[in-house]
Fold:
Amino acid sequence: MKQLIFLTASLLSGCFVLAQQPDSVAIQLAGDSAAYAVYRFAQLSPAFIQQGMPQAFNHVKVGVLHTSGGLAATQDASRTQSVQAATDGKVVLGKVHLWGAFAFERTAEDSTRFAHQTRNITAAPFYYGSPGKVHYQRKVYKANAMLLRPFFNNRLPLGAGIDYRIGNHFSVNDPRGNITEFELKMNATAGYTLVKNVTAGVQGYYGYGQEVLSIGYKNPQYRQSPLYPLYQTYVINGYGEPEYQPNDLRYRTARQMRGAGGTLQYKVANSWLALHGKWEKEEQKYRDQNATGFNELAVYDVHTTQLNLLWNRRGPHNGLTAQLQWHQQRGKDFNLKYQANNYRYNAFSYTGALAYTVHSTAATFNYGLRAQYSSQQRIDGIYANHLRYVRASVTPSWGVNFRTAGKLNWGIGVNAVYDKALDHTANISAINVSYFTREVMYHDYYYQTADVAGGGLGIHINHAFDGFNAGIKINASYRRALQWNGREWPQALYPGRDRFMANAALVFFF
Structure:
């Protein structure tokens, strides 16, 4: 981890030196939604960093984030407070294009139920949980780097990338979960210019990771006493009522990822068309490891497929970016107790987005539209539970950035969202109904079948100094459920009506 952080810091230090200009490239990028969409897309593969990113820039952000409100899934946090720091940038050294990013986040969750988990594998079938509210503290570090080197007069681009994450998660009240995690992903890409302006590439992926979890009690009476049922720990293995487990509350998850992908680019004049496809298989093995060896607890395989298409056109006074994305994830377990597949998870989404930017002498205007159609399905064979939710959302947005005659710039942005439940299937077993059914499945049924509307507001102001810009950015958003589904589940735990988010950050552009 130290070596990766040093590499990323060194890369970004180079950006500080090479990108110090009064009219910062980074601040222009941040104020142009069409260009920023291209920059985000380019982070999908090293193959794109030459065409999709500016030649030299750096961006640093330090801020706080607050979320609150009960309009969330049971296993999400009802309230969070986060401190965040992040930086990213690109530099060109000779013919080598280098991009790097580093991020740190410290979050206090108050609180969650039935979720002694990280926030990375929320669809997994095997984990521990308790009915009572648990307060979690989380620290997560992320480091990312990519490079691209064209050979033979730009006809043969070769690239590589690395993503690393390490985290620590612990609860501060009984039952006290403690989770450590790491994940390392690597990729390599090779391309070839087929004809003028058309470049195709192939990409390979490999990665591995681990999560180590243990649960203990400061007050031993909570572990087994029937007087404190909310503190008892259960093992969830699938998507049905879990089993009570008072002892041996530990496991280690070994993860291994493999995949392949491809890219296709067409660049001419002020237009760029790019396609990215990726398929990845991940195997997760859950084991109880102790001094005498280990016991296999569960196996879970996940297949992820995604396609991303982007078209960007730049004019002298405007820019347009259009994107289409398809994402699918299919997971199934192998239940070792029954020696068969029990749990299945299927999710997919189609997303389209438009970003249009107009530049004038005194201001930059941004117009955006995003639409998504998504489906999520969970099946548990033992309990015959089948839950499927289909939703569609649309989000229009507008913003303006004003340039003053002096060194001060400021801007404002607004957006609206309408998220509608289109269809659902809810077959939930009525046998042995207890905490998990009432507080997770019934609760999330109402959450997933509610129509939701909301909006957001953002303002920012920055000042140009010698070689860099510094400013303040504030955002807030609010979402509210318009109504609940009319179906009644006995003793169901209902979600809250609304959800609020606000964040403030100091931002620096080099």
